[in-house]
Design brief:
single chain; about 260 residues; alpha+beta; Jelly Rolls; 2 domains; six-stranded antiparallel β-sheet; 6 helices; elongated
């Protein structure tokens, strides 16, 4: 048996970011579909972007009508997926004939930050709602989202560098692995088209291996099977959906460990 990398838990808070930065990231899952001509891809992208833009606009309008922070947040989520052109154009000059000037507040831009700010405004004096919307909005704007909010919101969290992680194996009976034993976390849902990151950190006495699978298809997303107790898999899910995390102690002694997912 090769010597194992020892892990000093007392230094984890100070060196966690350095450890994660030093680990080699696995590539995102490849698309098996044959390559399409650029013109066809551009046309498909434009159609999809238009559909998303329409949905975002409808949600923003309905959110304004109802003074609904949640509808405006949903609009902000969709607005973040709109692909914007970069060609410079002159400003539009607008007028509406035969109608008095609208005295109401202008509609927010179809842009994530503006929609989040309007959602916060519509919370009024409801401090509990405002706090929740601010938290959701900050997460939405961060761009570094992994496990979905509804799964991660109640799990304990650890900040490592610039990334917040949740502890997946929160129960004490799921934090120790004897030699040859596997731990499995099922139905772990990550957001689509965002960075998904699973990190395993053991106490360093043994050898832990990590596999991540698509829960629906059973296909393997990635693995880390080196001879240490620190493992990592990074990918970008095509769709929001469930994944399965498997950790196995392939060493000769029991080991305590954390399973972390970015949030």
């Amino acid at each position: 048996m090769m010597s194992k990398k020892m892990f000093n838990w007392s230094l984890w808070g100070a060196t966690g970011a350095m450890i994660l930065a030093a680990m080699v990231s696995l590539p995102a899952r490849a698309d098996d579909a044959p390559a399409k001509p650029d013109a066809e891809l551009n046309s498909a992208d434009a159609t999809a972007s238009m559909s998303v833009a329409i949905q975002a606009a409808q949600l923003a309008l309905e959110g304004e009508r109802r003074h609904s922070p949640m509808l405006l947040l949903a609009a902000a989520e969709l607005a973040g997926e709109i692909k914007l052109g970069t060609r410079a154009v002159a400003a539009v000059r607008s007028e509406t004939s035969g109608q008095d000037d609208d005295k109401g507040a202008p509609l927010p831009e179809l842009e994530p930050k503006a929609l989040v700010m309007r959602a916060i405004e519509h919370c009024g004096d409801n401090e509990a709602l405002k706090s929740s919307i601010e938290s959701l909005g900050a997460r939405l704007l961060s761009g570094e989202r992994g496990i979905v909010y509804r799964q991660g919101k109640d799990l304990p969290k650890r900040k490592i560098g610039d990334t917040t992680f949740v502890i997946v194996n929160v129960k004490s009976d799921h934090q120790r692995l004897d030699p040859g034993i596997e731990y499995t976390a099922r139905n772990v849902i990550f957001e689509a088209k965002k960075k998904a990151q699973v990190v395993v950190v053991g106490d360093g006495d043994g050898d832990l291996d990590l596999w991540v699978y698509d829960e629906n298809s059973g296909g393997m997303i990635g693995k880390d099977t080196d001879t240490t107790s620190v493992c990592e898999v990074i990918w970008a899910p095509i769709y929001e959906g469930p994944f399965r995390i498997v950790v196995k102690n392939v060493g000769s002694t029991w080991e305590r460990f954390y399973v972390l997912a970015n949030w």
